[in-house]
Amino acid sequence: MKKTNAARFLDGLGIKYELKEYEVDEADLGAESVADKVGLPPGQVFKTLVVRGDKTGVLFACVPGESELDLKKLAAVSGNKKAELVPLKEVQPLTGYIRGGVSPLGAKKHYPVFLDESANRWPVISISAGVRGCQLLLAAQQLAAATRASLHDLVR
Fold this sequence. Notes:
One of its GO terms (molecular function) is aminoacyl-tRNA deacylase activity. The chain is of the alpha/beta class and 156 residues long. The protein has one domain (5-152): YbaK/aminoacyl-tRNA synthetase-associated domain (YbaK protein, Alpha-Beta Complex). It is built from five helices and eight strands. A five-stranded mixed beta sheet has the order 4-2-3-5-8. A three-stranded antiparallel beta sheet has the order 1-7-6. β6 (125-128) and β7 form a beta hairpin. The protein is globular, with a radius of gyration of 14 Å. The termini are far apart. The mean pLDDT is 93.
């Protein structure tokens, strides 16, 4: 597999990771389906959501695939009164990534990253490598260091 921007970003920081490819099903881009394809429990596969806060602007929220982001919790920890998911049509222009392939690493611009604290329960977590059909496996602490993420309870 060709290296993605996210993988090159980690290479530049000297962070160890594993790339795991899987067959893409365009009808089902859900994180739970990805978890099944890469052989991990859904709680270990994190999806990256693009969110806009009313005060701080665009940010990334990384939450377990089996969970739903609590926008009120995210707003509170990110210094916003409210937060909402960015409309799908804005995701690629803002990040350079398409739906099903958004990564908190190597985006067009650095946005603040908020990682659900459950990531620390796993020796490694899986996040998108920046393209559909490929996941990055790395330690949550390494992801947090690479993205300057803060860890919080972000799910319902």
